[in-house]
Amino acid sequence: MEDERKIRVSTIWITIGQIASAVNNFIVNVIMISSFGATNFGIITISQQYMYFWDSIFNFQSWETVVQEGSKKDYNSKDFGAGLKYGLILECTLSIVAFLIGHMLIENIYFLFHWDKMVVQLINIFLLLLFLNPSGIILGILRYRKKFVLISIHSIIFSVLYLIVMSVEILRQSSLIEISTIM
Questions:
Q1: Once rounded to an integer, what is the mean pLDDT over residues 87-112?
Q2: Which of 60, 86, 69 is nearest to 144 (CA)?
Q3: What angle do CA 22, 134, 123 make, to 5 degrees?
Q4: What pLDDT is stored for residue 53 in this prediction?
């Protein structure tokens, strides 16, 4: 009965976190479209998607490994700790590889699609986000330890802060480059 209650509470928190994040992201997108126009918003979107493309290829969802291996081993064991260390090193290495390949190919893709130079500038900014990406291990630890409330609270706080910062920057009439460094 206690396990059922924990599952229900965790599910509610996860749902609240996802809804809050989705609503805030939608609001930010509406504000950005109305402030920058559809063309500039499209430039930002293309730039983000280029980075997400490389992230999706080189991101191996290490949190799943942490949860699976954690269920087989003691959380405090040396083997588990060594696995976390190896996973973090692998995540960091793959982020560097994704950045380098994405950066090396951008000029060729720029010419192929006849993109505006602004797209390339924004892509170079977004590619830097790949270095901030190694979070799968941390997420895996939280999921393994069943800290779903913390994951949801983080999602809610991050999305609210994102909405506030983006709103302030748009009110300041920041440029696309400035906005992209915040995203």
A1: 89
A2: 69
A3: 70
A4: 94
Check: CB of residue 146 under 8 Å from CB of residue 11.
Answer: no
The tokens describing 23, both together, are: 């609503």
Query: Contact at 8 Å (CB) between 103 and 110?
Result: no
Question: Positive or negative CA dihedral for 31, 33, 35, 40?
Answer: positive
pLDDT in tens, 103-143: 999 988 888 988 888 888 889 888 888 877 657 777 777 77
Give the tens place of pLDDT for each residue, 11-62: 888 898 889 889 988 998 898 898 888 888 888 889 889 999 998 898 877 7
**Nearest 5°: phi and psi at 173?**
60, 45
Quote the CA–CA distance of 80 and 67 in Å, as a whole number. Answer: 11
- pLDDT value at residue 126: 87
Give the single-character DSSP code of 1: -
The single residue listed with the structure tokens 């490994």 is: 65
Q: Which amino acid is at 4?
A: E
Provide the token pair at 16.
């609240």
Structure confidence at residue 17 (pLDDT): 86
Query: Residue 145 CA to chain centroid, in angstroms?
Result: 21
| Long-range contacts of 25-32, Cβ-Cβ distance < 8 Å, separation of 24 or more | 25/159, 25/162, 27/163, 28/162, 28/163, 28/166, 28/167, 31/166, 31/167, 31/170, 32/166, 32/170, 32/179
